[in-house]
Amino acid sequence: MNVTSQNYYNNETGLAPSKHNSKQTVCFKYSTQTSTSPTGRYNSSFSDILRVYRTGEIVLFRVCRNSQSKPPLSSYGTRLSTGITSHGRSQIRRAVASRVVAAPSKPVMLTLTTQEILEDRVFKRHLASFLDYAKKIASSTFKDYVKVIDLQQRGTLHSHLLLFERIPTDSFAKLRALWADKYELGPGSFDVKYLKGNAELAGAYLTHATAYLTREHDAIRMGRNGKPYVRTAFAGRAYSISTSLIKGALPIELTFPLSDARVHSLAKSLSWTRDGYSAHKQCDSFADAKAHLASFGITA
After folding, report:
1. How far apart are CA 175 and CA 142, in angstroms?
2. Has domain 80-236 been given CATH number 3.40.190.10?
3. Which among 42, 71, 176, 291 is most buried, taking Cβ atoms within 10 Å?
4. Beta pairing class for 46-52 and 57-64
């Protein structure tokens, strides 16, 4: 705990340090006490960040903005993916929800596989070229998408693309020929599933598709035949979200001083994590989340 944080804790008997203490970051649980020092001055090193998402989620963070408390930048080697992380699952879920709210959807699940076992770099090169071409001939369809790369049981990669518009008939034939014939990945390696039905069915399909894309895998992955996967990890990121789609998943972000009474009142209605670092509430809709905040005098 740095000197600034220690002095602040000594002055604030109503605030308890969290279990997530480290030399770089110190967070505190909420209290009904004000957060002024005995001299009446506010400690500006701490603040509250409130995020409101289109999914109706309300997330409250307590952070220390003291420059001395920032953790050092980490350098990473090659990323190894076994599946989508919890952060990735939240991003995908929020991005899909924002797209459904923004415009009508006719969801499509496009699956790209390979009949032969290819090296990862070859498959990824084909996939990148395929997307570049698809954006040119069917720009509206491939404007918003979620792409997930996953392992097949035999050890080669395959990809799922969740789209929100139907692929035009003339573009469909060209894309299938590109993937199956030009790249020589086989006639059964290009699979499209459309949903026929009303808006309610489309919403149900999107919920199911999102859950399928973001499913968790065991440390030792097993196939449907009961045999283990040839490998359980691959280099690179397991998912990506189109630029236009990820913008809708970004939250409305508000920052408050630690002493703001409105935030203290709001904090009592939220569920805290074990370490007291963040609090969360899931409302049924974005409108309900805004109404909940408005009851505490907070306008999002």
Report:
1. 12
2. no
3. 176
4. antiparallel
> 213: which 2 tokens?
């894309």
State the residue for tokens 């603040």.
47
pTM of the model: 0.73
| Token pair 């359980």: residue | 232
- For the chain, the structural domain boundaries read 3-74+251-294, 80-236
Count, in order, helices (H) and strands (E) of the chain: 8, 12
Q: CA 221 to CA 233: how far, in whole Å?
A: 10
Q: What is the pLDDT of residues 32-56, one digit of tens each?
A: 333 333 333 344 567 889 999 988 8
The reported pLDDT for the residue numbered 191 is 93
Structure tokens at 86: 């919890």
H or E segment to which residue 130 belongs = helix 120-137
Unique residue bearing structure tokens 């002095």? 7
